[in-house]
Structures are given as C-alpha cells and as structure tokens.
Design a protein that fits this description.
Layout lengths: L3 H4 L18 E5 L3 H6 L5 H22 L3 E8 L7 H24 L2 E6 L7 H14 L5 E9 L1 H17 L10 H5 L12 E4 L18 E4 L9 H13 L8 H8 L4
Parallel strand pairs: 1-2, 1-5, 2-4, 3-4, 5-6
Bound molecules: 3-methylbut-3-enyl trihydrogen diphosphate (2 copies) and magnesium ion.
One 3-methylbut-3-enyl trihydrogen diphosphate binds next to helix 2.
C-alpha cells in the first residue's frame, strides 16, 4: 500500500501551532469499528484491523494538511488484552509492522511520534521499535502524533498518583501542595494542550477509559462511520461541528461572548 503522505504534493508540513483558532489544536480519536467493518463483509476481524491502518494514514495526512498541531490516537486499550489471544497477537504484529513501514515516511513529513500507555507489557522488539521511533522523530515540529497503546485513563491517573506519593515519601513534595496543577503535570500528555476535540468512530457514544483527566472540557463528536472508512470528510465534519460549539468552561454564554469581543 503506498504511503499517501508522500504521494500528495498538497501536504506541506506547517509549523506547530499554526492552525486557525476555530480549528482544534489537539484532536483525540477513539478509532473504533474495525471488527464490525470486517464482519459486515464476511471477513475475519483481523482484516478490519489491517484496513484500519490506512485510515490512520489518511487521518495523519489530513491533520498535517490542516495544520493541526496535536493528534492523539487510541490504538489499544488496557482492556483490549482480554480479547481472544489470536486477535491480540495479530494487533501486536500489525503494530510492529506499521512501525517498521511508516516511521521513516512520518519522519520525512515532520511528524513527531510519541506513545502513551504502559509499554512494560510489550515484547522487547516492539519496545525497541517504539523507542527508535520516538528518538528518530524527536526534533520534528509539523505535528505531534501520540499513539495510545496499552493505555487506560484509570491507569494513567493511578500512575500519576503513585509518582506523587513516591515524591512525598522521599520528602520532595508536601502532600498539602498536591492540587489540580500537580496532578495535571503528572498525567500523560502533560506537555501538550488538553484535547479540544474528541472523535469516536464506530457509532458508540462512550469514552471507554480513554483520557479521563485530559477530556474534562473537550468537545465530544461521535460518528457512525466505522474506522476503516474514516477519512478527511469525517474529520472535516467533526471540525465543522467543533467550530459551531460554544465552549463555556463553566461560564455563562454571555460572559463567553463578551470575552470574545474583548470586553472586560
Ligand atoms: C477498534 O476496533 C480497534 C481496537 C479496539 C483495537 P474494534 O476491534 O473495537 O472494532 P469493533 O468495535 O469490534 O467493531
Ligand atoms: C476503545 O474501543 C479502544 C480503542 C479503540 C483502542 P473498544 O472497542 O475497546 O471499546 P468498547 O469495548 O466498545 O467500550
Ligand atoms: Mg470496538
């Protein structure tokens, strides 16, 4: 399968942070529906996962084109280990192959790749590939793509609490000083803005233990499109939906509108 990133001359890597304000600066996606996509075609679920890889490519490509500086993709949850062993090992194999195949091209297009989740559960060859991808792309600035693998929002929060407690035990941190910003600095993606827009494909309207802390004020958009069919049109639809929302962050609509007009 050709890598569409390189074949499309329209893809010009913009500098991080250049997306217009009406566009989300950080998009977080639950890539759901691969299994059902395959089952509807009378194929094994793993075929759906293979086809889902093209939708990842199309999504990264379109976000690059639109100048979205941060993209976080939920690829494998901490609960997905409980799936049949054949499906789990196929997913791991696909992940490994995708890393080998795509990382060079992603690098050429200025993509900085990161992973969130508990990597301890992965095989050493996979961990090595992940480290290599992160190292290779560390200086890139066109877009940050965070892939959530063996990630769970509850794991993320528990790990953050554990690190804070360890620092308190060592006497480096006063427990009384643990506040929202202290926790925010410990959870995954702490060095990136919180997601503005959450998209879930596949028709289900739930978070499924994705970024529980980070999604506190994220706009949620759900689409019936199954992940292997997801592409630029679905993203544009979600961006329009996002642009039409009024984000109030607990304020009144009037307060928000006055602030937008520069009123005190
Ligand atoms: C998302 O598709 C991919 C993973 C969770 C790994 P699913 O495999 O969950 O597909 P459905 O939801 O069963 O259709
Ligand atoms: C969420 O999808 C996780 C990923 C897309 C990686 P699931 O298919 O695991 O979610 P549930 O089981 O429908 O909630
Ligand atoms: Mg699913």
């Amino acid at each position: 399968m050709p890598m569409s990133l390189t074949s499309d001359p329209a893809v010009v890597a913009p500098a991080t942070g250049h997306a217009p304000k009406s566009l989300p600066q950080h998009v977080a996606i639950v890539m759901d529906g691969n299994g059902r996509w395959a089952e509807r075609r009378g194929k094994p679920r793993n075929y759906g996962h293979r086809m889902g890889a093209s939708a990842v490519r199309a999504t990264v490509e379109h976000c690059l084109r639109r100048g979205i500086p941060h993209l976080t993709l939920f690829a494998f949850s901490s609960e997905n280990w409980a799936r049949p062993a054949g499906e789990v090992s196929a997913l791991m194999g696909l992940f490994l192959k995708a890393l080998d195949r795509e990382v060079g091209q992603l690098d050429q297009h200025g993509v900085r790749l990161d992973f969130i989740g508990d990597a301890d559960a992965f095989s050493e060859p996979l961990r090595e590939r992940m480290r290599h991808a992160v190292e290779l792309t560390r200086q890139n600035t066109a877009i940050r793509v965070n892939v959530a693998v063996n990630y769970g929002g509850r794991w993320d929060l528990a790990a953050a609490c554990r690190r804070l407690a360890e620092r308190a035990v060592r006497g480096e941190l006063d427990p009384a000083s643990i506040d929202i910003s202290a926790v925010a600095a410990e959870v995954a993606l702490a060095d990136q803005p919180e997601p503005d827009l959450f998209i879930r494909s596949g028709g289900d309207q739930r978070i499924s233990n994705f970024l529980l802390w980070q999604l506190a004020y994220t706009e949620l958009v759900f689409t019936e499109t199954l992940w292997p069919d997801f592409g630029a049109a679905d993203l544009e639809h979600a961006f329009s939906e996002y642009a039409a929302r009024e984000r109030r962050f607990g304020l009144t609509g009037e307060q928000v509108r006055r602030a937008a007009q520069g009123a005190p």
